[in-house]
Structure formats: structure tokens, C-alpha cells
Automatic annotation (TrEMBL):
Keyword Membrane: no
Gene Ontology annotations for the cellular component aspect, listed alphabetically: periplasmic space
UniProt subcellular location: Periplasm
InterPro entries: BON_dom, Lipoprotein_DolP, Transpt-assoc_nodulatn_dom_bac
Keywords, ordered alphabetically: Periplasm, Repeat, Signal
Organism annotation: Pseudomonas delhiensis
Annotated ranges, domain BON: 47-116
Region forming the signal peptide: 1-28
UniProt-recorded name of the protein: Osmotically-inducible protein Y
PROSITE patterns with a match to the protein in the record: BON (PS50914)
Top-level taxonomic group: Bacteria
Organism ancestry: Bacteria, Pseudomonadati, Pseudomonadota, Gammaproteobacteria, Pseudomonadales
Principal subcellular localization: periplasm
Length: 116
């Protein structure tokens, strides 16, 4: 996935560079800014998607957590957990598991409730 993104970024940079020779200087800077903004948004989306997948798979793989009953969402590195687990200990373990994933900046578990 990273190689594919690198090729996309290289292609976008090349297209931007080629357009400089065809565009007047007035239009060159906004085009570059727009391309940089698009690349940054794409990187964030890829990172958030990867984090969500990694957290979810880690929760499911842990036999002490009922990972299938936990919903995971990520926005700019902040993971939100929601759903229902059996105990407070399981809730705490789910939070610790999410915090241990690379790229996670914070975990919000206000929506994750323990049944007991």
C-alpha cells in the first residue's frame, strides 16, 4: 500500500512540475497548495483506516476481549470505542489494546459500556 501511495505522490508531483511550465506564475502556487492538501488528506485517511483495522483485528484476536461486540472508529489518530463488553476489566483491556497500536494518539471509550 505504501509503495502504491508513493507512486501516486510521485505522479502528482510530476504532473504539478510539468504544469508549472505551462501555467503562468499566478496559477502555480494555488495548484501546488491544492495538491499538497489532497496528499495530506489522503495520508490521514489511509492512516485512520489502517489504525481502525489494526485495533479491530487486535481486539478480535485477544481471547479475553469480546472484540466482535466493539465498534471502532478513528479520526486523525483518535480511536473511539463503543459497544458492550462483559466486565470493567474487559473494557480496560480493550482501551489498553487500542492505546498500544502504532499511530493512535488517544482513545475515547465513552461509548464502551460494561454489562456488570
Amino acid at each position: 500500500m505504501k509503495h502504491r501511495f508513493s507512486k501516486l505522490a510521485l505522479a502528482a508531483a510530476t504532473a504539478s512540475a510539468l504544469s508549472f511550465s505551462l501555467a503562468s506564475p499566478v496559477f502555480a502556487q494555488p495548484t501546488t497548495l491544492a495538491a499538497n492538501d489532497t496528499v495530506q488528506k489522503t495520508e490521514e485517511a489511509v492512516s485512520d483506516t489502517w489504525i481502525t483495522s489494526k485495533v479491530k483485528s487486535s481486539l478480535i484476536a485477544n481471547k479475553d476481549i469480546s472484540g466482535t461486540s466493539i465498534k471502532v472508529e478513528t479520526n486523525k489518530g483518535v480511536v473511539s470505542l463503543s459497544g458492550t463488553v462483559k466486565t470493567e476489566a474487559e473494557r480496560d483491556l480493550a482501551i489498553q489494546t487500542a492505546k498500544g497500536i502504532k499511530g493512535v494518539t488517544a482513545v475515547s471509550a465513552d461509548g464502551l459500556k460494561a454489562v456488570d
